[in-house]
């Protein structure tokens, strides 16, 4: 395949105050129809730009590969967040008007799995899958075509993206942490697939829906599978969806993006999206933790933080993880406090600034870690 | 009672980056112990300042009244939100770091009602009430004294306030809308009390908990009542809690605050908090709507809005509610669009700015209105 | 003239992070060449939207008028500021990255007047005028076509607008205050023209250049006039430029906009831009003050403000202009402070929010007022 | 000297909306009166926190040193900027209400040098110096004690700090760039002193006053020197003031702070502030450039930037300094653009985020570099 075989469409997902349209570029590559379809988006949170570079590196390689499945790639998924500056940094994690996290506005109609399970209980698996996929897309469409006053700005963006995602069998949402090591949000049932990414740290998440793209993509299918199990029918979850956390925000690194593209291609190759491709996972120890064991560590006091825990590194309970400097107390107290955590853990990410209030999220830790 | 009988305490609810404490002033007036205790707070959302003026006007009157119950008054409930400027306006509706709405961080331990209902099933009502109140406060304390890294900035503020609120029988959280008429959030079971406020519009809310102060105050008691009903025991909900929406944000109006104080004193008088006081509700038609019928109207297009619907006024389906000016389309389209709503309604509030994106919340409407 | 005779062009003034162009709509009406050319822009500051409605009302009337001069109308002059939200309000007074006021980035090459005065000292007035106009436009072009790394975001927007403005003989920049009465910034030499607007309050400004559009438009011509005076040649200032302050920000009012359009048409009619038109100024007392007598009143303490001075109204020295409520001092101090100003004055505008720090600009006052 | 000999005072520099005071901690160490007095402040810009750590490391060493001159140390110099969050980052470069850069609000009364030069023309140098110092402090006091409505929030903070600074002979204002190498702003006349700091890059600045602390400290003395030169009297500039740019913002690094403290102590030792101390500058090549040769490089297009130029490193004209990724143009253009600069230069700092608009300041470069 060469660059000419990639097509581009710019979808309109809203309108801003001066009337100009909000558009998102969508790139599509056609497969031969024998493999699963793939949807990959990046930059839903404004500061998390590295995924755009990964999509660039994916396109650079995909244009010379043969595909079994279709691949849809969406950089700049959030045209508001991407362009929302406040000082030098990008304030694009939440709608600046409402505070709502842009990645908590996707939809899951919880009535749908049981409806479809009931309506199509006599169908074979392939028909059932096609029917459910169609129902999911129709459900999104019914929202997009409801009364024109019924959708928030963020919901309209989310639904437009979700409509694309529901047409795929594999969904990857590319994010980053603030200052962060690489990690993968993986639904528990897809644990085996996690080993095909070159990502050392894996969070296993349950089937609860909290509004994120990965959940919005796999929860309906997981739920369908559970509905059918009640009928006594075994039906594998048909869709895999991951949030891939690429590293730190506010950064573009084309060489790291090339590595990340290879990691994703390794997974896609495993899923038989590619024809005769030579992408394979790296040998590495992969560490996992359950979402309930992913612990946020909030600043126990206000101050200026020197972060000490190596990201991706294993720390022992009681080891120093940070200094907090409190210069207004130089004479009255110990002005340099040392913090530690009371559990063995892997430090996955830390806050992006040294200045913290009491209660600011300083770190997130994997605890009760096990090898995958 | 004179001003000398009011006591003040400044509680510390956090620490900011330069190490200075975040404090909140708490004013207390003692009753003779024969009436219910009252907790009133204001300004949890930074721009919603009018409640501070209402507390001022309450204090000015309370200092010459005799009280049966204790009254605790907390202005400036959120020392971060109150001081968070972005341009001329106050950006204090959500934590500027995380986007979390400051009024969605209160706690409700859902296990508590059934535990207490079980443990104290042989107690009389008064003992049961005292035990549950104690359990609620202890539950908050257990959070405040947990590991020092376990609380977010907003949670620590919320828990400190909630600890005060749980000691009362009546809780009022003073808010405002953006540009808004007065309205009252009232739990369904306390509907009769709504008529003692001089507020024309009443939203009746169910027992669902979504993190707000009013819900955090009444949901546990509602839930306890339901648990005891399962035991076959009738136990009235012991606490009333309301969110009082005073009008528009970013404004202080001392004369309106005096009216609002009278409205609150009328309700407190009805609840027998005051001794021999002459506060009574005004005669007015009060309109109510169920929370599920409280409809948000989002801008169907981006543009510059002239708001036409009178706040607090009854509008008919299809009547103009706004013009949207779209000057970039002066030649290509009708540049002045007229919007309407498809239901009869009361317009309760509208957005604070003329500039809107497609999907910005333009109005909120009461629909399926009935007289209280 | 009918709507068909209006032409539209969208000029590109920049590019945002996701690569999309920043465009500004430009509307043009052709005159018969016998009158002065006019440039009118609106909404350079994001929250100051009412000027767009005035341009709408101007277009609605101009399309049925005959024109002597060309008229260029630019709504939405700042595609970044217009769309910069922070909470419900529009944070568009300054570049969110740098803090630079969008209306302080225009250019005035101070060397140009003396250069042109020297080079064309033997020309007649009309030739000199044409040469200077050409030199001003060429100077802007030289900036726009300099090294591609040499312009800030705001400068590029400003220069593109200024290039249009320099082609006109009359320049109106439509602004609003925060909460404000109407007033006009008028260069001292054009004082007589101020009486043709229906604006009660006029600020007379000197020839100093501080980066604003009005100054950038008239300072070069004022300076040229002074250079020629040194040669002993009398040469009237050829361009008039005004900043028209329409009232309060964040509001669209189509009926007020119609009045404002009439006010501008009255001035344009006086300047012989229109053919046989019936627009004349209203009879009213117009009050003026020199820029040096335009006094900012900063909050002498932090607190919550009730604004008392009527905007546009005459206040006496010592009269109450505001209450400041300080609820954290209810017991320790007088919690309600009354502010006054020590001079007789006209209150022109006040701050947009009740919450103020010590030192926030509360009011701006005309002092040493005289009738125009 | 031990820690007991350090004194602390918290000065009140303002009040916020909920009435709480804005305070700044001031640490003082007494010398024996035989050396120059020193003033060092940090963190005037909210995100530039590393200076606080340098003050910590200075105090840790100064407490065991003997001093000739007094030393005043002010961390957290800006209690508003320091605590102004917008998302994870600190938005403290400018007043969030007005956009004014916090480091452009200091005062220089340009009439003062000639007045004092005239009044004290018969005094000896020491008397003249004392008189001018006194006049500078009195001038600040006259501002601080003017009408209580006459000062902006930022001006009140600046004047309070400046009053402390004017009492010193040496003034250091500790800043950082966004992502930056170390560099020093040094007035041209104090060039020789620059070699006593361990800082490789030195910007030589002229005597123009633009509102910054360093300028506000040395410009009056430079100007006095020039006034006296007109009288034919040679009078060395009596005060040295520097802005020390420590590296990148949003970071605390205690080990780098220790190095920076040593660098400052080396300079202070050279100026004979310390008794028998062993701090000496490191041997290194120091590169200088004139302020007029310090070139900002603005993004020639919008996009996502990979920064390539090594900070502090020498780059050649035409070498790649950045990639700009423009993923919306993957098919229509070269999506990965390479940028270069047209001069040999040293890259001193770059923007803090990968996301840039056309016209965002990407880099600042030393050009026409020479060895000091």
TrEMBL record, chains A, B, C, D:
Cofactor(s) of this protein: Zn(2+)
Pfam families: AstE_AspA_cat
InterPro entries attached to this UniProt entry: AstE_AspA_cat (IPR055438), N-alpha-Ac-DABA_deacetylase (IPR053138)
Gene3D superfamilies: 2.40.50.100, Zn peptidases (3.40.630.10)
Keyword set, alphabetical order: Hydrolase, Metal-binding, Zinc
Membrane-spanning ranges: none
Record-annotated Succinylglutamate desuccinylase/Aspartoacylase catalytic domain positions: 35-134, 148-270
Protein name: M14 family metallopeptidase
Organism of derivation: Pseudoalteromonas lipolytica
């Amino acid at each position: 395949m060469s660059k000419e075989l990639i097509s581009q469409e710019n979808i309109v997902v809203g309108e801003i105050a001066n009337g100009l349209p909000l558009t998102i570029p969508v790139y599509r590559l056609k497969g031969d129809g024998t493999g699963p379809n793939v949807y990959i988006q990046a930059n839903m949170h404004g500061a998390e730009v590295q995924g755009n570079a990964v999509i660039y590196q994916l396109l650079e390689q995909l244009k010379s590969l043969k595909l079994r499945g279709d691949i849809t790639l969406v950089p700049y998924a959030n045209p508001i967040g991407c362009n929302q500056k406040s000082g030098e940094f990008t304030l694009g994690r939440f709608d600046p008007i409402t505070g709502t996290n842009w990645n908590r506005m996707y939809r899951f109609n919880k009535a749908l799995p049981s409806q479809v399970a009931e309506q199509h209980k006599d169908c074979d698996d392939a028909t059932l899958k096609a029917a459910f996929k169609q129902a999911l897309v129709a459900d999104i469409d019914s929202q997009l075509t409801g009364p024109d006053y019924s959708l928030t700005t963020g919901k309209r963006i989310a639904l437009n993206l979700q409509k694309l995602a529901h047409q795929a069998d594999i969904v990857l949402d590319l994010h980053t942490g603030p200052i962060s090591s690489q990690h993968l949000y993986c639904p528990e049932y897809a644990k085996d697939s996690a080993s095909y990414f070159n990502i050392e740290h894996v969070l296993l998440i349950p089937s609860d829906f909290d509004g994120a793209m990965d959940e919005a993509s796999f929860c309906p299918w997981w739920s369908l599978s559970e509905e059918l199990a009640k009928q006594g029918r075994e039906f594998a979850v048909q869709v895999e969806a991951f949030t891939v956390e690429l590293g730190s925000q506010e950064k573009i690194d084309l060489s790291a993006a090339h590595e990340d593209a290879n990691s994703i291609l390794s997974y896609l190759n495993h899923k038989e999206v590619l024809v005769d491709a030579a992408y394979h996972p790296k040998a590495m120890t992969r560490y996992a933790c359950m979402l309930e064991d992913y612990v946020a560590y909030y600043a126990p006091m206000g101050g200026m933080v020197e972060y000490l825990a190596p990201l991706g590194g294993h720390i022992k309970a009681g080891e120093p993880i940070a200094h907090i400097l409190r210069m207004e107390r130089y004479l009255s107290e110990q002005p340099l406090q040392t913090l530690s955590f009371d559990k063995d853990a892997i430090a996955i990410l830390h806050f992006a600034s040294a200045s913290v209030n009491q209660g600011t999220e300083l770190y997130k830790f994997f605890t009760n870690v096990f090898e995958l």
